[in-house]
Amino acid sequence: MSSATLPHAQHPYKVMALYKFAALPDAEALKAPLAEFCCGRGIRGTLILAPEGINGTVAGTPEAIDALADYLFAAGPFGLRLAGAEVKYSFAETAPFLRMKVRLKPEIVTLRAPQVDPNRQAGTYVEPEDWNELIARNDVVLVDTRNDYEVGLGSFRRALDPKTQSFVDFKDYVAKNLDPARDKKVAMFCTGGIRCEKASSYLLSQGFEEVFHLKGGILKYLEVIPPEESRFTGECFVFDERVSVGHGLELGSATLCRACRHPLTEADRRHPDYHDGISCPHCAGDSARHAAAAERQRQMQLAERRGDAHLGDAAAEAAAQARARKQHLAERSRRANKAP
Question: Where is composition skewed (Basic and acidic residues) in this entry (predicted)?
């Protein structure tokens, strides 16, 4: 599916999600030029650089995102090291991100397993069109490598849920629940492909013989597989203000709890413990968090009444302008007081 035929391609914001395991020993030197390039074109989102590669999601005008793609994959300081990156495009009616961040980290997806190197060893890619046939086999163990709150919104039928709080926990799950002598074929999936690619490398390092992972992740599957043929149920959590997407990458129905950042289903929002912007069933007992959320909600409502921004770059710019006005008034008062 080309960018032009993606759902809502007429919307003003183009979203690019990408990752690539590639040798970037100069990641630190690449950080500032990349941030300058993005900020200069009004692009917002997060990009993570590490010696093992790049990962992130950003959004901007179609022209800006196309320029960034050229910068990353062909014309910029990365040379051709990111060529062949896993890239997915979608469109949004409103800005999915509030600010631009380029972060330097030890890993683009944190597993803390030094022996793992997807550039050297990884499982077998499975195209979305071939995924249904693979996971229908009785001799294949299907594992969702995402965290529990992501799995709670949707997953593939009969997939095992490791119930992890972070990807680092995946190693313990493997040690306790999977056995290379018993589980001869393991298929894994995640949101965009990056986590299960690294997980596949880890399983191979632990002696598992045949390891498969969904190329492009759930997002690519939802983009190209018709709903009537899909084995994915529910919605796919995404790490931006859209919260979730469904088949065809259509905007999902999930929202975020502003107190604990847990994704919320329609059933969650009908729960007695749900209070918009303040609490949800997943953080019902955290009174300190609720008090902070209530104050934040109050400040947001006040800002909305004033017509001011409350979050993101726009809020920072408004705050800077307010400080400048105060400084100007203070300077004018100082000069007036010094006048004879």
Answer: 291-311
Active site residue 196: no
Token output for 59: 């959004």
Q: Which of 38, 190, 196, 283 is flagged as catalytic? A: 190
Selection from 103, 108, 193, 96 nearest residue 146 by Cα: 193
Q: Can you tell me whether residue 43 is helix, strand or coil?
A: coil
Indicate the helix (H) or strand (E) that contains 324.
Answer: helix 312-338
Least confident of 43-47, 90-94, 245-249, 272-276: 90-94
Query: What confidence score (pLDDT) does residue 322 get?
Result: 44
∠ CA(127), CA(93), CA(265), 5° rounding?
70
What residues pair up with 45 in beta bridges, in sequence order? Answer: 58, 100
* CB-CB contact of 231 with 135 (8 Å): yes
Question: Does the pLDDT at position 327 exceed 60?
Answer: no
Q: Which helix (H) or strand (E) holds 291?
A: helix 287-306
CB atoms within 10 A of CB 20: 23
Calculate the average pLDDT of the chain. 87
> Which residues lie below 8 Å from residue 148, measured CB to CB, with a gap of 6+?
161, 163, 164, 165
Q: Could you give the 3-state DSSP secondary structure of residue 142? A: strand
Give mean pLDDT, residues 275-286. 88
Average of pLDDT values for 207-227?
95
The tokens for 218 are 């759930």
Residue 36 host element (H or E):
helix 27-39
